[in-house]
Amino acid sequence: AGENMNGFNDRILIDQLIDDINYAQTSALARRETITIAFDVAEDAYTVYLGAIDPGNKFKGFPNGVGGVIDMNSLQLGGVDLTSVNFNNSTTLQFLPNGTPVSGGSIEVNDKTLSIQSETGKCIIN
Known about the structure:
Blueprint: H1 2-31, E1 35-40, E2 45-50, E3 69-71, E4 82-86, E5 92-95, E6 105-109, E7 112-116, E8 123-125
Antiparallel strand pairs: 1-2, 1-5, 2-3, 4-6, 6-7, 7-8
């Protein structure tokens, strides 16, 4: 039964990540400013910034986050392993004010890969 629960939790985790990426993209469009999501693979966390990566720019009102930081382990979904993040050799996903990502890429979490398309920012689970 634990096996099924893990699959279910993985799905919630991925859905949460997709929701956050979509929210960041929508926010970039709505605010007409760049939104940056910086992933920390070692900490299984990501930080959302309004504009460039700077401590003063953290997106404090971001849902599910605490002061703009989303700790994936705090979501109470069991073990979380953010294995790798690659956006053109960077661990940062950035949405421009028009909502398009600076570059597409992939996020690997709990053996599932989430691809973000370069033109649209659409998320696809591989």
